[in-house]
Amino acid sequence: MNNLFAESSWSSLNKYGETLCGDRVQILRAEDGGTVMVLADGLGSGVKANILSTLTSKIISTMLAQQLSLEQAVAAIAKTLPICSERGVAYSTFTIVKISPDGTAQVIDYDNPNTIMLRGGKIYDYTQTKRNIEGKDIYQSVIHLQENDTFISMSDGALYASDNEFFDMKNWTRDHVAKYCESIYSPEATAQSLSASLMDKIYNLYGKVPKDDTTVCVIKMRRRKTVNVMIGPPADKKDDGLMLSLFFSRKGDKIVSGGTTAKLVSAYLGKPIVPIENSGDDEVPPMSSIEGVQLVTEGVVTLNKVLQYAEQRYESPQPFPEYACKQDGASLIAEMLIDKATEINFFFGKAVNSAQRADMEFVKIGMKQNLVDRLCRVLEKMNKTVKIYKF
Question: Do 236 and 217 share a structural domain?
C-alpha cells in the first residue's frame, strides 16, 4: 500500500434557488496514515440540510480518522443530529470510503446511491454485507486495493437528472452513471477530471437548473509520485551546497524556479543553461533547460500563474483545465503539481540581492513567501502531501 496514494476530488451543485448546498464532503488523513472520506446528504435542502450534512460528515470523519469504530460514529450521529421540525426526524444519509495503509478500502453506504467502483476502467461489482446499527440498515464492503481502482460516490441528486419538470426515474439511473464513468475513464484520468466530467454531464442533463442538491466524489488509487521545487538561493551562501545536495538527493522530478536559482543549479551540476525558444507568451516568461532537471522557469510571475491555476482547479474543477492546452512554464508546472504529483517538496531560499535596495528585496521575499504558502495550502486541500524547507 505504501506505493499507492488516494487521490480525491469532489464537487457539488446547489438545488436551483438555494444559496447553501445540503450535501457535504469531508476528507481527512487518519491517524494510521490512511484516508477517510465522508459524503453526507442532509434531509431536504437549504440551511437545515446543510447543518445536518455538515454535522454528519464532520462527526463521522473525525471519529473514524481517530480510529473509533463505525458503531461509535453512527451512535454519535443518532444522538447529535437535531430533529427536523417539519418532518419530525433527524436524518442525513452518508457514504464512507476509508482507505487503510494495509491496502484495503472499506466502502459504507447508508441510504445514498451505492458507490460505483471501476477496476481496470471497467465496472467492478463488489460484495456488500448488510448491518443494522442504531436501527439503520448499513451496507459495508471490504476491498483489497489495486493501482487505478476508482471509487465514485454520490448523493441522490446525481440520479434521475433531466430537464423535465419532474425527476426522470428511467433515463439517468445509477447504472447509467456507472456506464458513463466507464466511458470517460482512462489510466491517465485524474480524480479531478473524472469528477468534473461527471458533474458537467449531470448539470447539462438538468438543463443547468438542478432540481436537487447534487454531489459527486471520486477517489482514485494512484502510484505515488514526488515532485521537488527549488525557489531562490539560501539566505546564507554557506548553505548553497546543503540546499542543493538535499534537493537533488530527493527522488522524483525536479523543477527550478527563478533565474538566480537556475544559475546556482547550473554551477552545481556543471551543465549549461539553454534558453528554450518560443516557450513563453504575453503572460508567462520563457523557459530554459538544464540537463538533469525536468523544468527550468522564471520565478514570481510564473509561480503566480501556477497559483491562479491551482485555485481555479480546486474551487471550480473542469474536465479540461486551461493549462492542459498550453506548453508554457506555468502550465507545465501546474500539470506536474496538480495532475501528477502526490508528494511535493518545496525548497525555498530567502536570499536578498545585495545589489538592490534591501527594503525592496525584503518586500519581494515576503511576497514570494506568501505566494508559496498559498500554493502549499491549496495543494494540501487537494489531499497532496506538501512539505516546505526554508534556507
Answer: no
